[in-house]
Amino acid sequence: MSRQINVYLCRNKTGVLRENELSRLSFQYCSVDVSPLSVKLPVRTEEYSHDLIFPFLENLVPEGDAFEILAKDHVSGNRIFSFLDKFGGDCAGAVAFYKTEPEKSNNKLHKIPSNKLVHIIDNLPQDPLLTSLENSPRLSLAGAQSKFAVKKINNQYYRSDDVNPTTHIIKIANNHFPDLLINELFCMKLAQLMFLNVPGSFIHSGSLMVSEIDLMEVQKRPYLEIKRYDRYVENGNVYRIHQEDFCQALGIVSGKKYQSGGGAGLRDCIKIIESFSENPLPGLTRFVEWIVFNYLIGNTDAHAKNISLLHAKTGIVLAPFYDLLSTEIYSKKIVDHNMAMLINGKGRYDSLKPEDFLSLFMQLGLNATNTMKGIKNRFSNIFEISKSLCETDKVLSANKTVCDDIISIIKKRITKLFS
Ligand SMILES: Nc1ncnc2c1ncn2[C@@H]1O[C@H](COP(=O)(O)OP(=O)(O)O)[C@@H](O)[C@H]1O
Ligand SMILES: [Mg+2]
Q: By the 8 A CB rule, do 265 and 342 touch?
């Protein structure tokens, strides 16, 4: 049996996704006047075949458990098609999948009271797609961590529906790495203090203003609330801004997010940055800051799905940075310490010398000496700032051990890089 579904971008019908009897997909834009889904999929009249459209779609769905849950009950047809048909109402960026045109909002929003929030958090590992909720939301976000998304207005969470996009992502604690949320909170806050472009806010549930009783219940279930940079609010309405991760921009599936798996390397990413901008220098400079910050905090998981392009009104730019955390504070036995992308051919942060960064900057077509000077200026006080962040932030100072582990990596790295 063949199936088809409409693809929307910023609520405009953009094309049709089809599946044939052999479960192969194809995509066709509905006009030459629409916006492209991806830099890899420019608007054209000719249909895109399975091999070209599949990576874009596959990168929209969660990795791991959430996807496997669908796969378990899945009987026939293409699994990615079925997933997006069922859950693709609110994805990363501005793309959405509907059989029929979504109805205009009747503004009937469904509140998520604290007890419901507790229920969602408790059940998320077994029910990652929230299918047990009445009127369950149709949303899909990539990544391996347990997460869901909500619309937040005036400090109150609401469930999204077909016409109400979500505004915030909620990441919940990981049983294997209970301090991962604190790790990410610390690194994101540090990046913000270092004036890197990161999402507008990230709040740990421990600092949310809810009633005493709720607070106790919620605090037992820590979570991280992250403002979506691919949404904006105007006159009370939420609008989407399109984004795509670098796997999508490169037309590769999520399994190729690591260079060691035959996937994306720094040079592939740079080609993308250079191709969409007449003056690539600001984009390249930000990209270099991302590379160096990950080195300083010991984030070996800086792969092609952890960096994205934002299709802003003013043009395509690097999206704010997300998923910044230190993987190196965990033992090599449980977390891979090989870097997701090689620097000057090397795959371990500890083996890098200042010369490797100089070579990298040269390979990027940058003035190596000036770029290194810029980097030194940019990060000269990161050690002091990280210490004071840990001391002054209420949630972080209560979790000093994790912060101290990251700070000691920063100290070691900054000494080495600036030696
Ligand atoms: N603040 C944000 N705003 C919009 N999209 C985001 C934001 N943070 C993450 N994303 C999107 O969600 C995906 C998963 O987020 P990520 O933080 O990488 O999760 P994980 O920890 O599971 O890897 C990213 O690939 C990106 O597309
Ligand atoms: Mg990620």
A: yes
- For the four alpha carbons of 338, 340, 346 and 350, in that order, the dihedral sign comes to negative
Ligand nearest to the CA of 225: 1
Q: For a substitution probing ligand 1, which of 38, 56, 58, 141 has the most ligand atoms within 8 Å of its CB?
A: 141
Contact of 90 with 139, CB cutoff 8 Å: yes
**Closest C-alpha to ligand 1, atom 11:** 92
Of all atoms in ligand 1, which is nearest to the CA of residue 226? 1
> What is the Å distance from ligand 2's center to 305 Cα?
6
Ligand 1 centroid–CA 133 distance in Å is 23
For ligand 1, what atom is nearest to the CA of residue 229?
A: 3
CATH number of the domain located at residue range(s) 248-417 in this protein: 1.10.1070
pLDDT tens digits in sequence order for the chain, 419 residues long: 799 999 999 999 999 999 999 999 999 999 999 999 999 999 999 999 999 999 999 999 998 877 887 777 777 889 999 999 999 999 999 999 999 877 766 667 888 888 888 889 999 988 888 888 877 888 889 988 899 999 998 888 998 887 789 999 999 988 888 899 999 999 999 999 999 999 987 888 755 545 555 666 666 788 999 999 999 999 888 999 999 999 999 999 999 999 988 899 999 999 999 998 778 889 999 999 999 999 999 999 999 999 999 999 989 999 999 999 999 999 998 899 999 999 999 999 999 999 999 999 999 889 999 999 999 999 999 999 999 999 999 889 999 999 999 999 999 999 999 88
User: Domain residues of the chain, as ranges?
Assistant: 3-98, 114-239, 248-417
DSSP-based three-state secondary structure for 328: coil
Tell me, what DSSP letter sits at residue 262? T
